[in-house]
Design a protein that fits this description.
Layout (H helix, E strand, L loop, with lengths): L5 H22 L6 H8 L3 H7 L3 H25 L3 H15 L2 H16 L1 H27 L9 H21 L5 H16 L19
Amino acid sequence: MPKLKPSTQRARREHILDAAEICFARSGFHRTTMQDICKEASVSPGALYVYFASKEDLIAGLAERDRSDFAERFAEVSATPDFMQALSGLGTHYFIDEPAHKRTMCLEIGLESIRNPRVGEIYRSVDRFVAESFEKLFTQLAEQGRIAPDLDIPTLTKVFSTLGDGMFMRRALDPNFDPQTLVPAVMGLIGKLLNVQPDANAKTPVQSKSASQ
């Protein structure tokens, strides 16, 4: 059998991850089998195991893909002069534009992280990366005088993360969740927590290294 081109291999790997994401969201981590993922992806078990040896490997692949996607989007937030508009765009992507099943899948992985040490390590590594990215951003914004929060930066970041986690959970669990209304309201609350300064957008954009590391 001829060896697949690297681009074809990447596309096939992404296709399998897409299938795993759907299966985990639909049936949960434990009820989903590797055969279910093969069926969803329309690939043979042999083709699947070329890329992923276990469901834990699939979760690691999904986590790394999400981390990379976040890093790319976060780099735009760090680089733009209007960081509140950029944060709003980030919220719109994750809470409105992304398919709801992705949030369900994240909940499934979060629950499994409590029971499965390897999944827990993967899950917490991504969570730390996101939190550290925002903490560095808020620290730099405060140093530049673009925000003046009443809370210290670590506490502010935890509050920010808690709001985001709540939005993720609501979108996954609440059939009446209305992100079109809630995202602007939450952004208004975040603006008050950050205490954005009147001339914040006139100052130099933040060049955060966290998204590229």
